[in-house]
Amino acid sequence: NIKNELAGQMAYMLTPSNENADKLYKALQVISDKEKFQKELTTKYDKVKNLVTGKASPKFDYENHKGGKTKLDDLKGKYVYIDVWATWCGPCIGEIPSLKKVEKEYHGKNIEFVSISIDQKDAYETWKSMIKNRELGGIQLMADNAWKSQFVTDYAIEGIPRFILIDPNGKIVSADAPRPSSPKLIELFNELEI
Length: 194
Fold this sequence. Notes:
By secondary structure, this protein is an alpha/beta fold. About 40% of the residues lie in helices and about 15% in strands. Helix 2 (about 20-30) packs antiparallel against helix 3 (about 35-50).
């Protein structure tokens, strides 16, 4: 029981940014003897191993708070920095001032800032109000099915905030990009000459 519990807790560390994802996956398969867990872990691992630099990004096509829908293909030709967040998420809200600062600094450059809310449908008005009250910039989208939205599951997102950087051709630069509050984000942007 302890081994299975430990495996379940450690499965959270199976992410695109974990350089030891292969080793972790293999170790967790050995530690756990629960078939359901092993199948779920394999499904997650199959997604994570495809979320590497240079691979085509999973797509989205979500409601834009300004009206209509916006899809990833609409943004081709520019880098796309995506913030997956929710109105109830304290750490997500904590990143807003830094995100606004980065957006301002890179305004007019070859990058779009997209925020995808994974709020439940009953928080729709809360989402709209927060965009207005906090004067959120960039492209504000609402995912169609919260945590179960296709884009969220394709990126194996189990915790937020999560930041993703996609290149102008729709390829993944980082499936787990630095947060706006991290100096590493600007270093990455400089490296890419954005």
